[in-house]
């Protein structure tokens, strides 16, 4: 590496080759950190309600599907066992994935701003 703060030297896998990039006028005051934009509060609330409805309807539908296939002996066919496995996997995906998806919408201060 070079001692100048404006020069970055990168060495590839071969020992003989090197690449040098020069950045002029780079200081800590003119570097912008790119962070993900947060949505407006009304958008976050609408998305939370929508995700809640999807979660409730999906859990209810998949649970009814599993109970129906398990309790009725005459519909226990190979295809319905496949549907049972799909319903179980959908339930697992909902329970493990959707709360983290909702968490990504909210900033820590948003909850107190809505409640306060």
Detailed description of the structure:
This protein is mostly helical and 116 residues long. It has a domain at 41-115. It is built from 3 helices and 2 strands. Strands 1-2 form a two-stranded antiparallel sheet. α1 runs antiparallel to α2 (78-105). The longest helix has 31 residues, at 41-71. The model has no long low-confidence stretch (mean pLDDT 76).
Features:
single chain; about 120 residues; two-stranded antiparallel ribbon; transmembrane helix; receptor; transducer; GPCR_Rhodpsn; membrane
Give the helices and strands, then pairings:
Layout: E1 7-10, E2 19-22, H1 41-71, H2 78-105, H3 108-115
Antiparallel strand pairs: 1-2
Main sheet properties? 2 strands, antiparallel
Strand sequence of the main sheet, in spatial order? 1-2
Tally of contiguous helical segments: 3
Global shape = elongated
Mean pLDDT: 76
Question: Concise description?
Answer:
The chain is mainly α and 116 residues long. Helices cover 58% and strands 7% of the residues.
């Amino acid at each position: 590496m070079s001692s100048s703060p404006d020069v970055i030297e990168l060495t590839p896998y071969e020992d003989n080759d090197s690449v040098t990039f020069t950045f002029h006028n780079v200081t800590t005051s003119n570097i912008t950190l790119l962070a993900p934009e947060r949505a407006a509060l009304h958008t976050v609330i609408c998305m939370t309600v929508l995700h809640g409805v999807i979660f409730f309807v999906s859990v209810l539908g998949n649970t009814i599907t599993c109970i129906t296939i398990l309790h009725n002996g005459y519909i226990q066919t190979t295809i319905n066992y496949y549907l049972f496995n799909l319903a179980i996997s959908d339930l697992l995906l909902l329970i493990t994935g959707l709360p983290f998806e909702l968490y990504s919408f909210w900033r820590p201060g948003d909850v107190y701003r809505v409640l306060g």
